[in-house]
Structures are given as C-alpha cells and as structure tokens.
Amino acid sequence: MWDVLNVIGTIAFALSGVLVAMEEKYDLMGIYILGFITAFGGGAVRNLLIGVPVSELWEQGTLFTVAFAVMTLAFVFPKVVRWTLLRRGVFFDAIGLGAFSVQGAMYAYSMGLPLSASIAAAALTGTGGGMIRDVLAGRKPLFLQKDIYIAWTLIPGVIVGTGWLTASWQLLLIVMAVVIMRLFASYFGWKLPIRTVSYHT
C-alpha cells in the first residue's frame, strides 16, 4: 500500500507542477525542476521535520523515473496534458493531497512518533511540494488561500496517528475520504472563516 500511495501521489503532483510551469511559460528544464519539486518537496520537508535523513529521497529511483516519464510526456503532448489538467486539475491535486497526506502520517506512525508528528507529517507531505512550487512560481500558496485545503490533512493525521485505522484497505478509504472532501470543497466553494483588518488614516 505504501508503494501504491507513493506512485499515485508522485504522478498527481508531478503533473500539477507541470501545469504551473506551462502556465508560467517555463522551458523544458523549468518544467522538470518544478515537477520534481512538487512531487518530492513535501517528502523532503517532512523528513527534515521528523529527523529522517533527506538523503533517503535519492533512494527512490523508481519514483524519479516515473516522474521523469510523466513530465516528458507532458512536454511532448502539451495540448493534451493541459486540456486534461485544466478540466481535472483539482482532481489530480486532490489525489496527490490524499495519497501523500496518508503516506506522511503512516511514515511518522511507523517510527513510533507522537500524534502531533503524524499530523505535521501528513500536512507537510501533502502540501509541502505544492507550497514550494507556488513560491518559486511567484504565486500565493494554495493552502494559504480561502479554499479548505490543508485542513483535510487532519483526517489522516489524526486517524492514522492514533493507530485507529492502519490496514491497507482502511488507508485506501482514508485517501478516498480526503479526495472526496477536497473535491466537494472545490465544487461547492467551501471556505474557512476569514477576518480582515483595515486601517483608516
């Protein structure tokens, strides 16, 4: 199940990075860089937080190959990929968020870390890559916008972190729950409350 989540999240976020790079008119190298950062940045940030050597990322040769292949296809067939992502971009993003947040929570739980670490690992793995992507692209990070985004990572963070549901089929259900809630939030325009302050002189 761990490997499946890795592959799903890697493909989804690599494509997400490709879309942003294309929208910003990046060249081939820029597409690869932004795609790799989006796909693997969250895991790197998570590893730094919970004390795992970042060098472990370089042992994921298969995932790097998968990401490279996906991004190459996106560059060769940009119109098809762009059309697909524009229509289903939120769907891919939701899949990546669900898969990586569950994977992050499982990573912390398997190390015997406390609940707070599982919650943080879920949030960082699920949103870290996208955050770095948006900053490099000069955009406001998605999780800082009004859309409910990072809040959905609390679902796997709490459930997995407490050891309540950890079987493979249960993890899949959690992924599906995050994906569905993210899609519902996007479709129905669910927002978190905001407050603004204005100063009059």
From TrEMBL:
Keywords, comma-separated and alphabetical: Cell membrane, Membrane, Transmembrane, Transmembrane helix
Pfam families, per database record: Gly_transporter
GO cellular component: plasma membrane
Domain Glycine transporter residues, every copy: 4-77, 91-160
Membrane topology: Multi-pass membrane protein
Localization, UniProt: Cell membrane
Signal peptide residues on this chain, from the entry's feature table: none
Subcellular location, principal: membrane
InterPro entries: Gly_transporter (IPR005115)
Transmembrane segment boundaries: 6-22, 29-49, 61-78, 90-109, 115-136, 148-165, 171-190
Family: Belongs to the UPF0126 family.
Name recorded for this polypeptide: Trimeric intracellular cation channel family protein
Organism: Salipaludibacillus agaradhaerens (Bacillus agaradhaerens)
Species lineage: Bacteria, Bacillati, Bacillota, Bacilli, Bacillales
